[in-house]
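Protein in question quoted in full.
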Amino acid sequence: MTAKTYGQMCPLARSLDVLGERWSILVIRELLLGPKRFKHLLAALPGIGSNRLSDRLRGLEDAGIVRKTVLPAPATVPVYELTLDGERLRDPLLALGLWGLDLPLDERIDPGTARADLIALCLTATQTELVDPSRRETFEFHVGDEVFHLQLRDGRFLARSGPSPTDPTLRVACDLQAFMELALRQVTPSQALKDRLVTILHGTRTSLTEVFRVLAYTPPSPDPDG
């Protein structure tokens, strides 16, 4: 835990004692997508620097949010992953991400930092209905140079980095703009296929439609008094 503290009993203040350092929440964001090697975290967080990343990981380890482990064979490489306490941050942090979707873009924000896997990560927080809990499937997306997948486990979708570790139910390809339009419900899967914005490499249009039916972002209604 960081040495800095608000010195208050308030649970929110105590949470910020742990999470309030710059970059800490973004490190957790990356680990919500699955275990990561140090070099992959460094690449995903341009500007953090190796010394600061080491410091943030050490603080999150001390707080019981992150731990070091080794991926099973054949990978057998050291990685960082979230602990059970770290996983408890998934819902509140993704809710914060959905809140941030509606903020105006600051001119200092680089549009080139947009990533489809992070959009998918936030999109999983929109799920309001459980799918059949017995289903264990993956849905793989190739968005420009990015590859990530959605796991269906215990009736809920989880966004994970990289290709599916098993044969996916669905594999699709599109560009970032098309994926964003699907995620924000600006185009339907049927229309995206018709307009050739999306290509199904494996699977059916029914599976594609299911993903964007269950994961449905609805922008908040305008404030009538605004």
User: Anything to note?
Assistant: The radius of gyration is 19 Å. The mean pLDDT is 93. The chain has two domains: 11-89, 116-214.
